[in-house]
Design goal:
The protein has 911 residues and is of the alpha/beta class. Helices cover 49% and strands 11% of the residues. The structure holds a DNA duplex (12 and 16 nucleotides). GO terms for molecular function: 3'-5' exonuclease activity; 5'-3' exonuclease activity; DNA binding; DNA-directed DNA polymerase activity.
Length: 911
DNA sequence: TGTAAACCGTAC
DNA sequence: GACGTACGGTTTACAC
């Protein structure tokens, strides 16, 4: 049968825009969405189709707007960066030879719906290429959907599998669920599951409405209340299949492409691969291609189809011969992608179950070594396989690439393998390329950069209580999954590395900082820190006793018992029962019970103070004393945190399980927890922290004379600031003046406003404005720097650190005032926070290089501006000096980098 | 039983 | 609306 492909242009334009980093060409014009669209179209052409149309929305009102004034009222207007890409997109689509359909008065959806039905009647198979789930209502017979973003096609069975209803029921389903983006009201609290349940029982919306009184509970009430609105919603979500069109399916043949126009457009927007194909004559041309069943069309890659061209050949290695064959391949490989499969996501507990390897795209193997289930085939032994791989993995001259290689390094370390030569890590490549994208896991990266949907771990092992160990997974299934991991890692590297290489400053941050930091963090995690669990348990008991007393007093003050841990119940007691005034509101408009609110009420009633005290103790116990005592590794007697290198957009490292970067320090009570972080007998804890590092960076980056001088003189910078702002000699600065100056210094780095400063200091807004004005008149360079940073952010779309780390700001052009202001504050803060992160990472590298193989110093923790070590007693004096020098020397700024080093038997003493 | 959202609080 | 970056504990609501 002949085939018709209908491309939902608007859907792809938006999706490509949001899925891709904000790329620009040499002229600074945005090209990210274009890039995605062009790749999508080129692969669509390779698939071939007799008839094809690129359908998009025409400007102006449609019948839906006339039906319902609020239709799409929630939809944000098109971002400028996207709008700028629409016209070039149309030019490229036209030059490629695609018929373009933009019909005024109806939406693209209705044009697609009408053409699909007409094609169906004419005996033509139709593929609708879209990312929009609403099209499921058209599926059936000879109409199917393809989503090039997720690599999936959807026929009738697919619709049932995904939505739990038949295609004919999709309209009713969408009516019940509603659509918050298009502002179509549904039934309140009715989600996908409820809608599918109801439609399974009553077949359609009319029958459901007829039996609405049978639905119980709150949700039944919601349904009955929604009934009057439902017919309108139904009309809004129904895709029309009968709009008048001037062209029919058979008018939609590809036209000849305009090679010269394409060449110019590709060159202008920097699409090198497409340009190369054009010059080689390998650019796909749908007009010439034979009709191919579109249903079987190969999955379309959103990006870099040249790098990725479908699933590869994967082998499960079970014999000595095959292992030898792979070892031989490794010998000549310029780069080896490797991955381990294990029994736990916690590297400290994980046992290796198998290893996967890839040396060229599309060819990978999985070597199972410990799969254990009834009927499992005989496997090579773990000892043997790891022994065979050890020389390769430990050879620094044999480059390797991993995805989150730190994990594999730690797992393998457990078997005496000291991995060296991790030259690349795709997680970090993605992180440095665009840190704004919050997810850098392999599944997300494969989707984003290869347009490929990977097999998910959960699909193999399940999740929650039903999760099984990877060792119990069938070897064939495991092999496909695991080999794919290595394969995709290699392909991701091939897609990402050229992009990094093209940006020297990003490449430098990646090569000189992030990659070398990986083994340093791995070692810190393995080393862990010694915890005095008994001390913590004692503290827990004591805290519990005091909490109980406070609890009883609080009940008496409230007049009855309630859950002190529940903000909601506390709110009812304070504001409803006791009638206290609600001065602070939560973001959702509720009266807040946070510290600031309770502090404000403390003079009116005794309860707020009791709650404040209780909360202070509860926090310490639940988050720290109980938690830390319970997380000590029984094998090592120490606590092993996880550090995350790709989690913080500004370049900082974060820590979890447990988070060692928010251990209390400000109160005496909290510091007792640090006393439980101890040195082993014969050792000392040495803690070294940068003094005012971010403020020093602000002085350096801004070059402000006053601030630079204040640091050069080496005194108390907040006092010096206060002296300038208040026009008094430094030794006459009052406590309050210094406090105000300190608040200004910190606030500035966070982009704080006069309003925020007033709130912080408890003064009125006029006074706060006055302080800031005086600050800026004295430190004019700081203001100029901030203005310049903001301008750069707006012009380039990103800001950068001293070392070239880049941060894109997504919301800088948002029409939403709050989002935009937030992005501007982030833009101001990122260069300082990020440069500090770069500097301490450089310091970690310097210290590590100095430590070499010596066994009397261990780096234990990194807390943003502080490094904590364990040092053997006889080496402490020497080591302190070296640490101080390494950290101070980690960057050359126009102000000195001051480091304070202390020692003690525990972390608290070392401060 | 599991998950997500809201609220709160710790660190730098 | 108003101060940047994280992680995480408890409660609550809700779906399975």
């Amino acid at each position: 049968m002949p085939t018709l492909t209908l491309i939902d242009g608007s859907s792809y334009l938006y999706r490509a825009f949001h899925a891709l980093p904000p790329l620009t060409n040499a002229h600074g014009e945005p090209t990210g969405a274009l890039f995605g669209i062009v790749n999508m179209l080129r692969t669509t052409m390779k698939a071939g189709s007799d008839y094809v149309a690129f359908v998009c929305d025409a400007p102006g009102r449609t019948f839906r707007d006339d039906l319902y004034a609020e239709y799409k009222a929630n939809r944000p207007s098109m971002p400028d960066d996207l709008r700028a890409q629409v016209e070039p997109m149309m030019k490229i689509v036209g030059a490629l030879g695609f018929p373009i359909l933009c019909v005024p008065g109806v939406e693209a959806d209705d044009v697609i719906g009408t053409l699909a039905r007409q094609a169906s009647a004419a005996g033509i198979d139709t593929v609708i290429s879209t990312g929009d789930k609403d099209f499921a209502q058209l599926v059936g017979g000879d109409i199917i959907l393809i989503n090039t973003m997720t690599n999936t096609t959807m026929d009738t069975d697919g619709v049932i599998a995904k939505f739990g209803v038949r295609p004919g029921q999709i309209v009713d389903y969408l009516t019940l669920v509603g659509d918050s983006i298009d502002n179509v009201p549904g039934v309140e609290k009715c989600g996908p599951k409820t809608a599918a349940k109801w439609l399974a029982e009553y077949a359609d919306l009319d029958a459901l409405i007829a039996h609405a009184d049978k639905i119980g509970g709150k949700i039944g009430e919601n349904l009955r209340a929604a009934i009057p609105r439902l017919p309108l919603s139904r009309e809004l979500v129904t895709i029309r299949t009968d709009v008048p069109l001037e062209l029919g399916p058979k008018d939609l043949a590809m036209r000849p492409r305009d090679v010269e126009a394409l060449r110019e457009l590709y060159a202008r927007y920097d699409f090198k691969a497409a340009l190369k194909d054009l010059d080689n004559g390998t650019e796909p041309s749908a007009a010439a291609s034979a009709p191919v069943a579109a249903v079987a069309a190969p999955a379309t890659a959103l990006v870099s189809p040249d790098v990725f061209s479908g699933p590869g050949e994967y082998e499960v290695v079970l014999t000595e011969d095959r292992l030898a064959a792979w070892l031989e391949k490794l010998e000549t490989a310029p780069l080896i992608a490797f991955d381990t499969e294990t029994t736990s996501i916690d590297a400290m507990l994980a046992e290796v179950v198998g290893v996967s390897l890839a040396v060229e795209a599309g060819k990978a193997c999985y070597i199972p070594v410990a799969h254990d289930y009834p009927g499992a085939p005989a496997q090579l032994s773990r000892e043997h396989v790891l022994g065979a791989l050890k020389p390769v993995l430990e050879d620094p001259s044999r480059p390797k690439v991993g995805q989150h290689g730190k994990y594999d390094i730690n797992v393998l370390s457990h078997y005496g393998i000291a991995v060296q030569g991790l030259a690349h890590d795709t997680m970090l490549e993605s992180y440095i390329y665009n840190a704004t994208a919050t997810r850098h896991d392999m599944d997300s990266l494969a989707q984003r950069y290869l347009g490929y949907t990977t097999v998910k771990y959960e699909e193999i092992c399940g999740k929650g209580a039903k999760q099984i160990s990877f060792s119990q997974v069938d070897i064939e299934t495991a092999g496909k999954y695991a080999a794919e991991d290595a394969d995709i890692t290699l392909r991701l590297h091939q897609a990402l590395w050229p992009r990094l290489e093209a940006e020297p400053s990003l490449r430098a941050v990646y090569t000189d900082i992030e990659i070398p930091v990986v083994p340093v963090l791995a070692k810190m995690e393995r080393t862990g820190v010694l915890i005095d669990a008994n001390e913590l348990r004692l503290q827990s008991q004591e805290l519990g006793k005091r909490m109980l007393e406070l609890q009883q007093k609080a009940y008496a003050a409230a007049g009855h018992e309630f859950n002190l841990d529940s903000p909601k119940q506390l709110q009812a007691v304070l504001f409803d029962e006791l009638g206290l005034p609600a001065k602070v509101k939560t973001p959702t408009g509720q009266p807040s019970t946070n510290e600031e609110a309770l502090e404000a009420l403390a003079d009116s009633h005794e309860l707020p103070r009791l709650v404040l005290d209780y909360r202070g103790l509860a926090k310490l116990r639940s988050t720290y004393t109980d938690k830390l005592a319970g997380i000590v590794n029984p094998r090592t007697g120490r606590v092993h945190t996880s550090y995350h290198q790709g989690a913080v957009a500004t370049g900082r490292i974060s820590s979890s399980d447990p988070n060692l970067q928010n251990i209390p320090v400000r109160t005496e009570e909290g510091r007792r927890i640090r006393q439980a972080f101890v040195a082993p007998p014969g050792w000392r804890i040495v803690a070294a922290d940068y003094s005012q590092i971010e403020l020093r960076i602000m002085a350096h980056l801004s070059g402000d004379e006053g601030l630079v001088r204040a640091f050069a003189e080496g005194g108390d910078v907040h006092r010096a600031t206060a002296a300038e702002v208040f026009g008094v000699p430094p030794d006459e600065v009052t406590t309050n003046q210094r406090r105000a100056a300190k608040a200004i210094n910190f606030g500035l780095m966070y982009g704080m406003s006069a309003f925020g400063l007033a709130r912080q200091l408890g003064v009125d807004r006029g006074e706060a404005s006055d302080y800031m004005a005086r600050y800026f008149s004295r430190f004019a360079g700081v203001r100029a720097f901030m203005d310049a940073t903001r301008d750069k952010a707006h012009q380039e779309g990103y800001v950068e650190t001293l070392f070239g780390r880049r941060l894109y700001l997504e919301n800088l052009k948002s029409r939403n005032q709050a989002l935009r202001a937030g992005a501007e504050r982030a833009a101001i803060n990122a260069p300082m926070q990020g440069t500090a992160a770069d500097i301490i990472k450089r310091a970690m590298l310097a210290v590590t290089r100095w430590m070499g193989e010596r066994d009397d110093v261990r780096l234990l923790m990194q807390v943003h501006d502080e490094l904590v070590f364990e040092v053997r007693e006889d080496a402490v004096t020497e080591v302190k000096k070296v640490i101080e020098a390494s950290m101070s020397g980690a960057a050359e700024l126009s102000v000195p980098l001051q480091v304070e080093v202390g020692e003690g038997k525990n972390w608290d003493e070392a401060h």
